[in-house]
Amino acid sequence: MAVHSKLQDITNRVIERSSESRSTYLSRMRAAQSKGPSRAHLSCSGQAHAYAAAGPDQDTLATGSNGNLGIVTAYNDMLSAHQPFERFPEVLRKAARSVGGTAQVAGGVPAMCDGVTQGEAGMELSLFSRDVIAMAAGVALSHNVFDAAVFLGVCDKIVPGLVIGAQTFGHLPAVFVPAGPMTSGLENDEKAKIRQQFAAGEVGRDKLMAAEMAAYHGPGTCTFFGTANTNQMLMEFMGLHLPGSSFVTPNTEMREALTAEAARRALSLSALGNSYTPVCDILDEKAFVNGMVGLMATGGSTNLLIHLVAMARAGGIILTPEDFSDVSDLVPLLARVYPNGLADVNHFHAAGGLSYLIGQLLNGGLLHPDTKTVAGEGLEHYTQEPFLQNGELTWRPGTAQSLNPKILSPLSEPFQKSGGLKRLKGSLGTGVIKVSAVAPEFHIIEAPARVFHSQEDAKAAFKAGELTGDVIVVVRFQGPKANGMPELHSLTPMLAILQGRGQKVALVTDGRMSGASGKVPAAIHVCPEALDGGPIAYVQDGDMVRLDATTGRLDILTEGVMERASATADLSDNEHGTGRELFAPFRAAVGAADNGAAVFGW
C-alpha cells in the first residue's frame, strides 16, 4: 500500500530541513568508507597490540582478511536487563569463527538503572549518562580495527547513547543485540496498588518489598512498557535488531540462536562482502519517521521525545516537536501494555507482538516500507517471526490476526484514533503529555498551582496533608541545566492517591517522568526551563493553570504573572555528591529538552 500522504509530507519536511546537515554527515561517512578495512592501515606494532590477547583468533587477525567484529557492551550484573550480556561475547566470538571471522570486545559503556535511582541523587546523572555512553562507544571503536560492530544494550539511556555512538562510526555496519524481558512476575497493576497503599501508610515496607521482589524477580528487562522496552520496539521499527528478537526472554535456546545470528549478520554486511550496509544508510530520515510511528502506535515512553531528537541529530537529521505531534495526530494507538493496559510485554509478544503491529501499519500506509535494515532491503522483513527448525534459525510470516484484541488491536479498530503522546504549547511554554493511559475525563485540568522546587518538598507537603482540593503540582528547576533533568516518577504514587480521592490533579514540570508515566496527567519537558527564565519560573502558589490535552494547550490563566520577578533556587546541593560534581561541564553545556538535551554541539 502507498505511504499515507500526510506521513510522506512529514518525511519530506524532515528531509528538506535536514538537507545541509545530513549531506555533511554522509560526506564524512563516505570518506571513512573509502579508506577500506581499518586494521590494514595500522602499523605492524599497532596490529600486534590489537591482537596480542586474541587467543585462538590471533593468527586469523594477523594473517587473514576476514571480517573482525567489534563488540560494544553495556554489561553489568546490577541491571537485570544487562546481566545476560555476560555470556554474549563468547557466543558472538564462536559465531564469528563459524563464518571465518573474528570478534573482540571493543569496550564497555556504563549502564545505570533509573529504577534504582528514582527519587535519589543519582538520578541527576541519568540523562547525562546517555552522552557518556555515546562517548564511551566512540572510544571503544576508536582503535579502528573493526569491519562491523554489534551493540549490547537495552535500557533507558543506553540504547540511545549506543545509537549516537554507532552513527559516529556510521560507515560500519551495526547490529543491536537485545537480552530480552524477564519472565512475567507479579502483575503490574497489583504492584502499583501496593505502592499506593505504602505511600498512603496503609501497608508496611515489608509488604512493599515483597511485592517489588515478586515483580522484579530475575534476569531480563522489566516487563512494563517503559523506556527500556520502547527502545527495543524502536530498534525493530528502525531496522537495527534482527526481526522478532526484541522480546525473546533470556537464557533460552532462541535467545542464544538470535545472538549468534547477530554476529554472522553483522559480518555479512561489512565492506568485505557483497552486501555492504553501513548504519549511516539504515538510519535515514525514513527510519526515524518509522521510529516516531512506532512510538505513537504503542504509546511508548515520553523519554524518547528527547532521545530520538538526539539520535537523529547524530546523523545530521533534524526532528522537531511538531514532527512528533503531527505523527501522533495521524497514527492510532494499537497496543495496550502496562501502564496503558494490564498486559506486560510478554503478553504483548504472545498476542502477535511487533510483527503483527508492523504488518498492520505497513498495510495501512503508515510506515515507509522501503528502508534498509540489517535483515535486508525493506521493512517487510519485520512482519516475520523467528523459529527454530531442527536447531536451525529461520523466519516465518507472523500472525495476520491479533491473538488478543485487548492487547493488540487491528488498524481498523484502534484503541485510540491518535497516538499516545501530545504536544503542549501555551503561555506556560512548551511541553508534552502522554495521554494513552489517562482517562478522557482527566484530559483537561484547570486548578490552582502548588509550586515546589524539588520532588522531596512536594512529597513532604502531601504527607502533611496540604494537597487538598483540585491542584496542579508544579515542580520546577528540574531541567537539564538545573540538575540534569531527573525523572520524577517517585511522585506517581502520591499523585495517583490524590486522583483516587476524587481530586482533579496534574503535574507540570521542566523535568521528566518515567517511561511508565500513567493515569495522572503530566505536562513534562516544559521549555524554556525555569533556570533559563521560562514562564514556569514565574508561577506562584494559587495561580490558575490550565492543562488541555485535547487542544494541546498549557497556559497560566492568572493575569500579570510575567510582570513579577522570576523565582530563583539554591541549586548548590545538586552540584556535588554521588558523582554530580563530575558533571558540572555537562550542566553548563547541555541544550534544551526540545533539542534533545544533548551536550554535543550539533
From TrEMBL:
Cofactor: [4Fe-4S] cluster
Annotated EC: 4.2.1.12
Domain Dihydroxy-acid/6-phosphogluconate dehydratase C-terminal: from-to ranges: 406-597
Residues annotated to bind [4Fe-4S] cluster: C155, C222
Any one cellular-component term (Gene Ontology): cytosol
The entry's keywords: 4Fe-4S, Carbohydrate metabolism, Gluconate utilization, Iron, Iron-sulfur, Lyase, Metal-binding
Any GO molecular function: phosphogluconate dehydratase activity
Cofactor remark: Binds 1 [4Fe-4S] cluster.
Residue stretches making up the Dihydroxy-acid/6-phosphogluconate dehydratase N-terminal domain: 68-380
InterPro entries: 6-phosphgluc_deHydtase, Dihydro-acid_dehy_C, DiOHA_6PGluconate_deHydtase_CS, ILV_EDD_C, ILV_EDD_N, IlvD/EDD_N
Catalytic activity: 6-phospho-D-gluconate = 2-dehydro-3-deoxy-6-phospho-D-gluconate + H2O
Top-rank EC class of the record's enzyme: lyase
Name of a matching Pfam family: ILV_EDD_C
Pathway: Carbohydrate metabolism; Entner-Doudoroff pathway
Gene Ontology biological process: D-gluconate metabolic process; Entner-Doudoroff pathway through 6-phosphogluconate
PROSITE patterns: ILVD_EDD_1, ILVD_EDD_2
Assigned protein family: Belongs to the IlvD/Edd family.
Function: Catalyzes the dehydration of 6-phospho-D-gluconate to 2-dehydro-3-deoxy-6-phospho-D-gluconate.
NCBIfam families for the chain: edd
HAMAP family: Edd
Protein name: Phosphogluconate dehydratase
Gene: edd
